[in-house]
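Minutes, project check-in

Agenda point 3 was the complex the collaborators sent over. CS summarized: two entities, 308 residues total, and the question is how they sit relative to each other. Sequences were read into the notes so everyone works from the same version.
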Amino acid sequence: MSRFLRFAPLLVLLLFVAIVAWRLITPDDTKIRSRMTGQPVPAFALEPATAGIPGLASKDLATGEPRLVNVFASWCVPCIAEAPLLMELKRQGVPIDAVAVRDRPSDVAEFLGRHGNPFQRIGADPESRVQIALGSSGVPETFVVDGRGVIRYQHMGPIEAGDLPALLREWEQAR
Amino acid sequence: MRLWLFALALLSAPVRADSDLPSARWANEQLPDPRQEAAAKALMEELRCLVCQGQSIADSDAELAGDMRAMVRQRIAAGEKPEAVREWLTERYGDWVSYRPPVEPLTWPLWIAPLLMLAAGALLLRKRLRRRG
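CS then shared the predicted structure for the full assembly.
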């Protein structure tokens, strides 16, 4: 056996250990991004999620100005964390609509009463159909939709203070 | 202090991570037509759950997986081909959502590797047998 072959198993082991160490230090990104970015919003029409706030249809998203669409739920804890940031975006003049996933009208009303309402329209999505049609894989997620109703950007997970500049920039660029 | 915290922890309610809405119709109910149900089941076993990413939507208890099962059954019952449903989901979530990888340049190694390894094994075996002989 040649000298090289004798060390081959050791080299294989070292390679294996190196790969394991690399993945331990920089874990794989397990987010599944929507492939709908760059595509028009799929056609849908959702009933109002709670009394007093209109429902949401895809035609409401092609109004000539870019908007945010927040996929949220009253039972989602990170949605509480991002609520004040959505209020801040509203204060800065960003129009925001929402899809309430698997929610009850009374629960949505309670959530908005407790955390404020940044939304102009909220559609009820009791079987996650619009969520799946958008390519969203969880709550909360936020999409930037331009004036022609084309999805331009997807933010996954709760919006944190550090995410505001990027979201505002994407929203400006979608004009 | 520590005891107080412990008592508080016992009293606190667990945080809900799921809605308490009942699951969608067809999420856990079989289609009346056995042939359609078989087609839907076969597809559901090859679609990956977006929440518990190692499971198929047929195996997962996640609510989103339940809603995806309901969607698959509804579409199959409406006469859609399983491959069309898979494609519709792939358009949204990428090839990732399907457990059956497509044959394309990026996945060629995946399909060829077993053949190459088999060939290498045969070669090794032949060498060894010849040495003995």
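Noted in discussion: Chain A has one domain: 45-173.
Follow-up: revisit at the next meeting once the mutant set is ready.
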